[in-house]
């Protein structure tokens, strides 16, 4: 990863010294309570590819419009992993303006539970690095969470969402993020 577009940002409690033994193969310890890791992309990839002087945006996380580029919504992409691991990628979908408007209008209302939409993945998530034309479908699962990616008509997208992946392959690009011992100042 060249730019710091990923973090372990999450609204839930994560981090702290691992209370379970790290995996022998990859050195990463699964969450002691079996929760998925949170790996969060701060912004759509395109945001980092536009010259700062040309970058004009409206909104913020989870609603971001980028002038001359499009409309983006934050979603969770859950990925099943082997050996008790799992990860929820916090990522972005590029959506139609009408979807963006509907999400904005229902986000804090009971109608949110019925929100479902199509979009294009807006982060090249490692290790798959899906193209930015990868089409997925998202819908609300929990009222207090952003929508989840639930399926994809694209071959790679469907595999990412549907398969159980070798955890070391998927987590390797994020190993430094997930081995959470603090750096020791010398
Ligand atoms: Zn491992």
Descriptive report:
The chain has 186 residues and is of the alpha+beta class. The chain has one domain. It has 5 helices and 10 strands. It has helices spanning 45-49, 97-106, 155-162, 167-171, 175-178, and strands at 6-7, 37-41, 57-60, 63-66, 70-81, 86-95, 116-121, 135-139, 148-151, 164-165. Strands 1, 2, 3, 4, 5, 6, 7, 8, 9 and 10 form a 10-stranded mixed beta sheet that branches. A hairpin with an 8-residue loop joins strand 8 (135-139) and strand 9 (148-151). The model has no long low-confidence stretch (mean pLDDT 90). The protein binds zinc ion. Zinc ion binds at residues 23, 25-26, 28, 167-168.
Sequence stretches where pLDDT stays below 50 over 5 or more residues: none
Please outline the major beta sheet: 10 strands, mixed
Mean pLDDT: 90
How many separate domains make up the residues? Answer: 1
Question: What is the overall silhouette?
Answer: globular
Order of helices and strands: EEHEEEEHEEEHEHH
Structural class: alpha+beta
> In angstroms, what separates the terminal alpha carbons?
26 Å
Radius of gyration: 17 Å
Tell me the total number of β-strands: 10
Estimated share of beta-strand residues: 25-35%
- Tally of DSSP helical segments: 5
């Amino acid at each position: 990863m060249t730019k710091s577009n990923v973090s372990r940002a999450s609204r839930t409690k994560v981090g702290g010294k691992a209370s379970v033994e790290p995996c022998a193969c990859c050195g990463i310890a699964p969450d002691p309570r079996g929760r998925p890791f949170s790996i969060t992309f701060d912004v759509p990839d395109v945001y980092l590819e536009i010259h700062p002087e040309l970058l004009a945006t409206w909104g913020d996380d989870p609603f971001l419009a980028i002038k001359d580029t499009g409309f983006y919504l934050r979603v969770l992409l859950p990925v099943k992993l082997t050996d008790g691991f799992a990860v929820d990628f916090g990522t972005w979908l590029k959506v139609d303006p009408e979807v963006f408007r509907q999400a904005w209008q229902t986000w804090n209302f009971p109608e949110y539970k019925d929100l479902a939409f199509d979009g294009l993945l807006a982060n090249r998530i490692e290790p798959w690095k899906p193209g930015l034309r990868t089409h997925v479908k998202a819908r609300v699962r929990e009222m207090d969470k952003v929508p989840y990616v639930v399926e994809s008509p694209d071959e790679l997208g469907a595999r990412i969402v549907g398969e159980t992946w070798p955890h070391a392959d998927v987590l390797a690009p994020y190993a430094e993020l997930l081995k959470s011992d603090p750096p020791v100042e010398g």
